[in-house]
Design goal:
The protein is α/β, with parallel strands linked by helices. It is built from 4 helices and 6 strands; from the N terminus they run ββαβαβαββα.
Amino acid sequence: MDLFLRSTNSDPDIFAVRGEVDLATLHSLPRSFRTWLRGRPGPPSRPAALDLEQVTFVDCAGLRGLLAIERHAEQLGGGVTLAATSPEVTRLLDLVALPAGSTFRTRQTTKDGALTGPRTDASALSRAART
C-alpha cells in the first residue's frame, strides 16, 4: 500500500491510497491518515477527501480501516468524503451494509460502476466546502 497527498491546492485536501487495503494495512492506514490530517496546514477540522481510485484490492478488514478514517475525521469536525474509487472499492461498498450516517453511503454509481454525484466529484467537494 502506498499513501500520497494528491493535491495541496484543493479544498478539501485529498489523501490518496494506492495498492491493497486489507488486514496488513488495517492499523497503518488510519494511523497515516491521522498523522496527515494533523500535519496539514490549517485547522484539523478542514474537510478532507479520500482518493481510492488506485486501490487494487480491498477486503472487510480494509473497510474497517476506511471507516476508522471516517470516524476520526468526523471527531475533528471536518469529515471525509470519497473523491474517487476503484471498481474493487465500489463493489465492496455496494455489497456491505454501511453504518447509518456514513458519508460512504451517500454516493451514487453509474451503470459501469463509476462514482458520481457531489460526494465523489472533487470540484463539487471543493465548492461545497467553501459554502
